[in-house]
Design goal:
Chains A, B, C, D: This is Formyltetrahydrofolate deformylase. Chains A, B, C, D: One of its GO terms (molecular function) is formyltetrahydrofolate deformylase activity. Chains A, B, C, D: Keywords: Hydrolase, One-carbon metabolism, Purine biosynthesis. Chains A, B, C, D: InterPro entries: ACT-like_dom_sf (IPR045865), ACT_dom (IPR002912), Formyl-FH4-Hydrolase_C (IPR041729), Formyl_transf_N (IPR002376), Formyl_transf_N_sf (IPR036477), PurU (IPR004810), PurU_ACT (IPR044074). The structure is a homotetramer. Chain A is of the alpha/beta class. Chain A has two domains: 2-83, Alpha-Beta Plaits (2-Layer Sandwich); 89-282, Rossmann fold. Chain A is built from eight helices and 13 strands. A seven-stranded mixed beta sheet of chain A has the order 7-6-5-8-9-10-11. A four-stranded antiparallel beta sheet of chain A has the order 2-3-1-4, with helices on one face. A two-stranded antiparallel sheet of chain A has the order 12-13. In chain A, helix 3 runs parallel beside helix 8. The model of chain A has no long low-confidence stretch (mean pLDDT 94). Chains in contact: A-B, A-C, A-D, B-C, B-D, C-D.
Chain lengths: 284, 284, 284, 284
């Protein structure tokens, strides 16, 4: 049976849910999941709906066109309708840290991530053996002060050639350029090794240690031009105490980084995240 | 503006959401919250909806009658429609432990619980001073092997006289009789001091200590005739280690019991819990 | 049997533990708890030891003098030796929020806190009825821009008259003056309603909501002259999501504030916290 | 500098700590970590101590002999003294589930686990490609009702040939035979996919789903002859709700299993776990 996922986002108005669910009824869909959210302050409406198409002859394309014509225009909606079978293509950007890369490729190989990974891009050669080990094409794109323009150009060519839908920075230690960000708006996922907005920027574990916090965290967010200021997808924490050194913080943090990044990837890949006002609605 | 909360529960069928949201539209309601759940295995549909009635002349009673006539019968629904302003009346049953009682009455006095507490019933006199301190009528109903019938009769009379909607057992150490359970089906909330189904029955902290667990828990559930087997509303846990004695378990457990019971009371009082197949759907 | 708690803090040196445990042996003490910590970076040694005095004729005073003379001077120790039976005297400072006050007084009445509470001081009259309800003397010390000097003078007189050992700010919304801080160095416990160092200062829940975090927290710390920058004693967190409004954050936060502050009070009252370099060693 | 880890376990007696720390002083050790625990109920004493040997000429072997002669005999101690540089050798037993295997080998390759992994043993061929991918020798030892004796014999030969110190069952779905258990007492680590003692045995996620719990867990424990009854090393939990299917439980559980097992391996490999009375003392 074909399955579709519908994401909607518009000004809150009377009758949206009734109209949309009537539409699904009309196209012979059986709603298996519906969640909606109203931001009362900003008067914005969000909806996520999953449906099985009970008529095998249904065309997802036709439904898409129908929805645009009969509903989306009237309500002035931002919306997407996905065929659940089509896996999004994900690019991995890495530098030298290997723990998130091992974790993602392990999960990918174990069939836990609903994505395709056509390529890994790195500014260093260090992690190429891991890419080889998992049979993922690895591209070395050096990225220095002097070749930023050239480096970005190469990255974008690779991404477009492989029809990449979204990018995951698995402890990629470089600033993403505005041009790349604008091409992949709300589609570049970063993992920051602190409980944002505490300790943005470099060396957060060292800062956390110095401040004497009792809990450390990790934050996965979409990349925007403001460093570590993008919409937060997922966060988690773990306890630390006076017996833990900075190295312990780093080791415990690796576990957090792995887990939080993996959750964010899953949420994004399953189209459960919507962005507005630099915040996320996560239908999980 | 009048506000209503609608809870629905029926066999899953096509068009329920569209029908219900069309109805709300018809009675000039503005949907501010809608959540639904389909148990795919058992083919059961659940829905919780909050709505503001934009027409000040609307009658909740009339809407109720209208809903029954035009929708509920057709879909063979179990349903409730609450006026959000009407606070449910809650009875507290206690014995000798005071920590949950202090916590509930503190929250109640602070205005955090959307309930009325017309009375406290106890099989001992020990906690009467606390009831007095908070100005809640306290009834001593002794409950021994010999007066079970009489004791239960007194309890039920008190509950009915005060039009009690639901009962909270705040570490009440007596078995509830089947007659009382049948009068308040899914309306008696207990707090058990373990992570159920681990350690049911008496002295769970001692058993947990003996087993050497690294985490202890507390569980709030509706009371059924099977001891500690009723539908679970909420659970939480805390870490323990070899340095903790049984007394430490008990002390840490008190914090859990307080918090978990308070959350369960809030969820129930705000009509966010639905029960089926000895499980709960919690729309939170 | 008499019980003592010994806290030590000095430069790390060879033989400290052997010397101290030999001393306890000499004074006929049975060590029931010993924990120590070495800050390798700063070369500082910390120790907490509990002991039962097996000789009923032992004098805690004599042991104290002996320890100073035979050990503390040699090792240049900062140290304290407490008689476990002597409860510290705690003053509560409150303003208008009542949830922490209810929680602390409920725990106090239930016998969970090893303290005496001789008085409550407030800049407003709002919470006097709660103090009355729990029979704790309540002092109204108004605190405005114009009477800061006078207000502080009254506070200090009250604290000294009642021989207060430490102060708890239970959502007391005033800045503590430097004079009072210097009198109670590392003895004034505050609860801040955020996961510090994120969101210091006013309205942290509003800032957290605006930033779109997925987790909120509360932090209990000793008050220093730098606002919200003092040594952290305890922190905890809870999850939030897009469905939560600022009011939900505030309500969930109340639970955190209560719990985190209560834990910090217990740790301090049981002499489990040592402070250095604006951080805490918590032997728990 | 040479580093040693000393684990002690004996009847509680006066003067143990003083005696042991004096000994370390004598052999020119600088204590960098000391933790001890007294089980007051059973009158048992536990201690873990780490020390740097400041004299480069020190012999760990000589210290070991000295300790036995001068102290261990007198106090009737069970004890171990490890050279921190010697990594324990760990065997992995697997069946068909791959998520724990990927996780462990990823961490191992990333240098996070202080062990050597000389071999993987499995009753199926399914995971051989993963062993190959990470260059770990893989031995297929089929294990059916009819060849139990033969299978066990092969396992033990492989373990002895590779001088294995401890065994990790990474979702190995077979019962371990008593002979193997007695050879590796408290040295076989299992991961059970529930919050023990809730849901022992087969299909715990299905049972948890049926019971309607709000939290699921995973437990790592040493294997004993009683199934799922061995000493617990580590546990952790995650929240579930009515929206989660059994498959969601299984997926969320995989994350728990990975993390909890990895933590248990680390604790064991760093000699932080001591066992008595079917419980663990975990010095972390």
């Amino acid at each position: 049976m074909q399955k579709i996922t519908l994401l909607i986002h518009c000004k809150d108005q009377k009758g949206i849910i009734a109209t949309v669910t009537n539409f699904i009824l009309k196209v012979e869909g059986n709603i298996t999941y519906l969640d909606q959210h109203v931001d009362m302050e900003q008067n914005v409406f969000f909806m996520r709906l999953e449906s099985e198409l009970t008529n095998p002859a249904s065309s997802v394309e036709a439904i898409r066109a129908d929805f645009q014509q009969t509903i989306a225009t009237d309500f002035n909606m931002s919306w997407d309708l996905y065929n659940k079978e089509v896996k999004p293509k994900m690019a991995l950007f890495v530098s030298k840290y290997n723990h998130c890369l091992y974790d993602i490729l392990g999960r990918y190989s174990a069939g836990e991530l609903n994505v395709e990974i056509p390529l890994i891009i790195s500014n260093h050669m260090d992690l190429k053996p891991i890419a080889d080990q998992f049979n993922i094409p690895f591209y070395h794109v050096p990225f220095t002060k002097d070749n930023k323009v050239e480096g970005e150009k190469q990255q974008i060519e690779l991404l477009q050639k492989h029809k990449i839908n979204f990018i995951v920075l698995a402890r990629y230690m470089q600033i993403i350029t505005p041009d790349l960000i604008s091409l992949y708006e709300n589609k570049i996922i970063n993992i920051h090794h602190s409980f944002l907005p505490a300790f943005p920027g470099a060396k957060p574990y060292h800062s956390a240690f110095k401040r004497g916090v009792k809990i450390i965290g990790a934050t996965s967010h979409y990349v925007t031009e403001e460093l570590d200021e993008g919409p937060i997808i997922e966060q988690d924490i773990t306890r630390v105490s006076h017996i833990n050194s900075v190295d312990d913080f780093i080791m415990k943090g690796k576990d957090l980084e792995r887990t939080v990044l993996a959750r964010a990837i899953k949420l994004h890949a399953e189209r459960k995240v919507m962005v507005y006002s630099n915040k996320t609605v996560v239908f999980s």
